[in-house]
Every structure is written in C-alpha cells, then in structure tokens.
C-alpha cells in the first residue's frame, strides 16, 4: 500500500516507521527541524520493542508532492485537524481512506466536513512515546495498538488491507465491531488520565495510588459514562472497571501528552479532551462538575500558551 503519514510527531513517526520498516511505501509529511533531521539522518525509533532506523526516508512538507495515496494516517494534534484536512486534499484520490489517530472524538467529523464522509474512518491508537529530539522517536511504554473502521461499521476492503499491513509490521491492530464504542472507550481513558494528571502534575503511578485522587479518577470516569449513555453510545457494563484496570496496568512513570504539553507551556488538546466532556454533557443535559472544574482550572495555562493571556 502507499501510505502517507500526515504529521510526523511521536504517533505518526512510530506507526509510520513500523510500516516503512516492514516494506510498505510510506511518505511522511513533516516540517521544520523534524523534516530536516529525517532527510539527513533518517527516522530513528528507539523502542522497548526493538530499535530501528528508516533510512533513506521519503519525507516532504508538500502534500502535493506526495500525490494521491491509498491511506492517510493523521498524526497531528487534535486542534490541528481542521487545518490538516485542507492541506491533505492533494493526497486524496477516489478511494483514499483517511484514518485519524488523535485523542478525542471530533476528528472524523472535522475531516469529513472537508474531505467527504466516504473517505474518513474512525481511528484511535495507544502507546507511550514522544519526540526525544528531531528525527528521533522514543517509545517508552505500553504495547502499541491501532484500531480503525468505517463509522457505520460496514466492511471496507481497503481498511482490511491496512489491517494486514499493520499486522505485517508487527503492530497490534483491530477493526472493532463498533468503532464508535471503541472511540468512546479510548476517550474515557485518555480524558480522565489527562485531566487528573495535569491538575496533579503527577505521573499515573502517583494519582492511581492515593485514595483521594483515585476517587477523582472514579468520579471522572462515571461522568463520561453518563454522557455516553445519554448519547446512546453502548459502552460495556464494566467500562469503569475496565478503565481502572488499564490505569493500573500502565507504567508508573507514564504521563499523558496533554499533561506534558501544558506543563511545558505548549498549546494542548485541552479543548478536544476535557473541554469536549463539558460540551458533550451540556448538549445532553448531563452534569460534569469534575471535568468542568478541571477545564476551568487549566484554561488560563492553555490561553497563555496560545498567546491569548499574559501572566
């Protein structure tokens, strides 16, 4: 398959790198120092599942130069998706599939608004990784996985081909029976992780262990479950216990990307995660007091990072 990775940060770099390592035809859309480093030294991935380097690497900052592809993996941050949707249009052919891998729930609709419903899948992924320095991705924890599928859960031949490509690359991959449920289960996990982690400024091993913050975790999970139920999302009966077990299985030093961004003064996915819980709750008249408090508490830092406030 010819695959484009639009946004070669930690997520795009890791999964695109694995696909390229396995022999898939991958073109990376990157920019700035990341692009320069990749062109000079290739893409290096330091991983708990084995280090590797993709060199030479096909990388550009011009989607038109890449041309039409079979699949676009969208690796930008959630707040960058609308702009990315417009920029990737030269890569969209008649049968191209676009797979968003962002945290949050709104990327498929944002992509469909520009590219058309027929091109966009629901997608999600999981792993603990970050850009160690330009051109170097560090995968430090968690078994990487990818899940994707058509939003109406119908069968897609090209989605199946992508599943096979990830399997050849040694990546755990699934086309779930209900992609919307899978998206909400990921959202349940990441929104609570990001909110509690950022407010406490502590890694998961700390806040999952203290009784006071563990109670906050349970409250946050229940708020999102209540919102999902009001929106007719069929989460499993044991969704809360499943999420708690996932938190308990994470490496103690793990932090969320939103937490790291806010702590380091960068724009973050606050709106796509915590803000989204609040918005979705308001739309269905479900109270989300804990997420509302966290959202309001973090908003000044987010606005400062975006140049909207100075203090």
Major β-sheet strand ordering:
5-2-1-6-7
What's the end-to-end separation, in Å? 49 Å
CATH topology assignment of the largest domain? Rossmann fold
Outline the low-pLDDT stretches: none
Based on the structure given, which CATH architecture of the largest domain is correct?
A: 3-Layer(aba) Sandwich
Q: Which CATH top level class of the largest domain fits?
A: Alpha Beta
Strand count, sense and closure of the main sheet? 5 strands, parallel
Please provide the count of β strands: 10
Question: Which superfamily, in CATH terms, is the homologous superfamily of the largest domain?
Answer: NAD(P)-binding Rossmann-like Domain
In short, what is this structure?
With 311 residues, this protein is an alpha/beta fold. The chain has helices spanning 10-21, 32-41, 63-66, 81-87, 107-115, 157-168, 179-200, 204-207, 211-230, 239-249, 257-263, 271-283, 289-305, and strands at 2-6, 25-29, 43-47, 52-54, 59-60, 69-74, 92-100, 122-133, 136-149, 172-174. The protein has two domains: 2-176, NAD(P)-binding Rossmann-like Domain (Rossmann fold); 181-305, N-(1-d-carboxylethyl)-l-norvaline Dehydrogenase, domain 2.
